[in-house]
Amino acid sequence: MVDRPDVALDDLYREVVMDHHRRPRGRAPLARVDATAHGFNPVCGDEVVISLALDGDRVTGAQVQGRGCAICTASGSMMAEMIPGHTAAEAEATAAAFRAVMHGAPAPGGTDLGDLEALEGVQKFAVRVKCAMLPWVTLTDALKAWRDGGNEATSTTEAQEAER
Amino acid sequence: MVDRPDVALDDLYREVVMDHHRRPRGRAPLARVDATAHGFNPVCGDEVVISLALDGDRVTGAQVQGRGCAICTASGSMMAEMIPGHTAAEAEATAAAFRAVMHGAPAPGGTDLGDLEALEGVQKFAVRVKCAMLPWVTLTDALKAWRDGGNEATSTTEAQEAER
Amino acid sequence: MAGTASPVVALDPRALRARFPILRRQVHGHPLVYLDNAATTQKPDTVLAALASYYTTSNANVHRGVHTLAEEATALYERCRSRVAAFVNAPDARGVVIVRNATEAINLVARSWGATLGDGDEVLLSEMEHHSNLVPWIMLARERGVALRHVPITADGRLDMAALAALLSPRTRVVSLTAMSNVLGTINPIAEIAAAAHRVGAVMVVDGAQSVPHMPVDFQSLGADFLAFSAHKMYGPTGIGFLVARPELLEAMEPVSGGGEMIREVRLDFASWNDIPHKFEAGTPNIADAAAFPAALDLLEATGMPAVRAHERELVGYALERLRALGWLQLHGPLDADARGGLVSFVDPEIHPHDLAQVLDTRGIAVRAGHHCAQPLMRRLDVAATARASFGIYNDRDDVDALVDGLVAARAYFGLAGESHG
Amino acid sequence: MAGTASPVVALDPRALRARFPILRRQVHGHPLVYLDNAATTQKPDTVLAALASYYTTSNANVHRGVHTLAEEATALYERCRSRVAAFVNAPDARGVVIVRNATEAINLVARSWGATLGDGDEVLLSEMEHHSNLVPWIMLARERGVALRHVPITADGRLDMAALAALLSPRTRVVSLTAMSNVLGTINPIAEIAAAAHRVGAVMVVDGAQSVPHMPVDFQSLGADFLAFSAHKMYGPTGIGFLVARPELLEAMEPVSGGGEMIREVRLDFASWNDIPHKFEAGTPNIADAAAFPAALDLLEATGMPAVRAHERELVGYALERLRALGWLQLHGPLDADARGGLVSFVDPEIHPHDLAQVLDTRGIAVRAGHHCAQPLMRRLDVAATARASFGIYNDRDDVDALVDGLVAARAYFGLAGESHG
Lengths: 164, 164, 422, 422
Ligand SMILES: Cc1ncc(COP(=O)(O)O)c(C=O)c1O
Ligand SMILES: Cc1ncc(COP(=O)(O)O)c(C=O)c1O
Prior knowledge:
The complex is a heterotetramer, with two copies of chain A and two copies of chain C. Chain A is of the alpha+beta class. Chain A has helices at residues 9-12, 15-22, 70-82, 88-102, 126-147, 157-161, and strands spanning 35-41, 46-55, 58-67, 152-156. Chain C has 14 helices and 17 strands. Chain C has helices spanning 13-17, 45-58, 68-87, 102-113, 135-144, 161-167, 190-199, 219-222, 247-252, 287-303, 305-326, 353-362, 375-381, 397-413, and strands at residues 26-27, 30-31, 33-34, 96-99, 122-126, 147-151, 172-178, 203-207, 226-230, 241-245, 263-267, 270-273, 330-332, 343-347, 365-366, 368-370, 386-390. In chain C, the strands form five sheets. A seven-stranded mixed sheet of chain C has the order 4-10-9-8-7-5-6, sandwiched between helices. The longest helix of chain C is centred in the last third of the chain and has 22 residues, at 305-326. The radius of gyration of chain C is 22 Å and the shape is globular. The chains are: A alpha+beta, C alpha/beta. The complex binds pyridoxal-5'-phosphate (2 copies). One pyridoxal-5'-phosphate (PLP) sits between chains D (38, 101-103, 130, 132-133, 178, 182, 207, 209-210, 230, 241, 373) and C (260, 283-284).
């Protein structure tokens, strides 16, 4: 049997998480879309579509659509709140830091994860890590496609979470 | 674990069997060959070639060549001794009766198995049944090919012993 | 098995439960309530004992050895084949190919029998199929230009039989359908469909992954040409499954995998094949699990498949009733317990199935949440995922009650109204 | 494992033997002397315990479930993959595909990587290959017109390296060779051959069925592109084997089997694939045996593969010496123990191998008699069959002595002269 400390549900569904889940931010359509990506979790069928407005390399607006579980929805909502005002590179650094935390590593020094810290408990639930990562994996893809000159991408949690 | 009564080696290698094994009959070439078949046991690589001379539907001579284990050799030797003088149908009946015995059934009433009775003990050694049957399977094929108008056939113990 | 007309003796889930050591386990401080039997079932003590016995007394490689262990191992391995043949009333044990799972069985048919198909030929599937009965045919369509047709489902989750009749034509070469949906529970009228398939000259492939473990299945009276199922869904070990086929069809098929056991004669640049079923079993097979599986068949036969079906029919009826009474759930599949196997898929419109399963897990209740390897069906039902509770011989009404309590608790946990309307 | 430079601590076969329950069995009233390890090995108590533990605590289907058992089963299954990767020093666990056996692994390469080959391309094999490394390529040759070339063997049973060099050309797309012959025992210089294969742009496929269980094998320092082996030959369960590959190669390959687990997205007439290695693992895998196999790796790692090799090298040296001394046996393969693994094939010119094995069996000694799935090699050696004794970690000199006594007794039984010349 696998050693697994008993986990409380409240570790997963913290207050902040539930708040984002109930009133997800970033649902409103953007006036202009510079980058977009469609993310898909083949394990559970969850989908998100991330749309971004950029000014130079600074994200000015983010929309998160799709259907997902509480964790996925909350994670996307936090993202929509956090990244506008940041550069693409900063957003990517946040995604990387969040992935590190989800896989049990400490957040790289200096990264402020803000509300995302409330998702820290997800790391104890292996299957749910993909739920939390889906919006961020998709964001990374949207930014990559935007850099590469395209503006649309499709991604899955499997592809990017496989290395963990 | 499979229930398997303890078996003595002497059940397998009876005196008569050993005699046929040491001095196999029917090795001499025939003056005339009317039917022939090549038999092959893919489990162990044993091979026999049966050649028959026929007069009408009566077998007048049999040659058994090839390389095989003691059981296979003895069985072929007994065959070479038994079937000349018998009709094709009689030879086939003997083959059928011997197969029945090898698979644990009583010999059909009226069949005289002669020396073959000494191979009765083989039935307790599942893998070795194919060794004993190889010459007979091949004989059956030779006769079948002869009836069908051809005069050559190839057969394996797998093909004909599969139904057991 | 087939043809015994003895009256159905009700099974005793409590007595059966005692035979499954894992059911004494606690999960998060609660006794395990295992409701994920459609994914895989638990294993009785006798299967574990048979496994251990094989390895501690008779382990050897099969088919080629003279020594005692090899002979015993071969006999045990072949015994599995004949037991399986008898269990589904196959015409001949030579028609039983031992594979890894139902998926491999269907792939074998799609690849090997499928190699006789080409442009203009059609394969008829349905909207309720598991990926294992879709993807092999999609691969075949890509390779050989075969056209795939799909029987739609009705609003209550049954095959649309009128549409099926209209889709059958002389171009139809294969009809491949699940006998019981792993999402909707629907039991399909296979015998009727097989007869129709045969009338147009098609072969009938039956995905029995869900039916063989849960109801009497008679290969011959179904009129099946191929039947695929997995041991692990019928109280047997993982890693072993079966393709049961009419021997004549297997005779005509080419092997898809080459190696030891499956050959007759090999030269450096030439090989000929062994007889069926061996020509489809390349390499050392899963001997131990084959040796152990008959212990699972013993249990099912001693319980009686009619009794298994009656028990699960009763249980799914009770579950449907209690789940409907909650008032807030979407239930998928026919609401008539006679038309469905012992599983129920549901969606709480306000709680994602993943979250629901998570809450249930903290109460020791194991249900599955997801697309159940049926993405096209999810799309048809217009859901991303469902939660699914699926029953086995050891489940009883208490398990259903625990599930219902858990669903109510989940609503409370997520701050939603959750008054039972029942 | 790889790179540990600790001195080789000799293994203690008696202590190891105590770990294998079956070795306490009697056969025909004699203690079992198991000398058929090249066909399959016996299983230690820890593997049996791991199997039982999986089924009694964590059994569930993998990869798709939220519930605790599903999470545990998934972790155990994936742990097998990473343990195997570490054991052979693979660059990445994503390069480890879990299959049924070595045969399936080679078929996967021949079918999937082989689909990139065509007319004019060549596959280089050898005269000493097992059917499992011949037939998949024969099937490929039939389908795609690829030409097969075979490295001949020398009189003492080694690859003819000069001939190999001459056969390699830019047309050679695949070199697929056994690292250790299951008949001759010959250990082939794979690293050297892989380097030569890479120079002409071919991929190197290594049949590790006999080498991985019996000597240190380092995927990266061998320069292998693909490595195939079976758990059942290395003290693990039947029904599970591995294809270890460079991940880039797997990425570029198409799956050969479709179904659950291996997909990304499925529509009725379209499917896309999951990431490696999952895209090659369709359907419910052999979870229990994957969960149990690391216990066998524990034993091998604790013993140390250098110690395993040293033990078997010593034993085969002793066996060669004693068998030669009998004076009447034909021995096949190199006579130098450094050049061969722990097995020896022999023929008594006056007793057919089947009869020899039968006599040995009545004394409790299990050896294999037959063509050992190497018919072309038998033809090359001009024998119908050989007898083979193959060693494992629990065998010792007493077992060799019992074998030699049995061979003498067989001569007596068949009324042949059988004076030992040694
Ligand atoms: C050299 C070699 N290759 C391949 C195999 C095939 O192994 P398996 O039957 O486990 O697939 C064997 C064993 O029989 C072998 O000895
Ligand atoms: C209807 C149906 N078909 C096929 C399968 C595939 O079974 P397996 O994964 O054992 O191959 C399943 C189970 O997952 C199923 O429910």
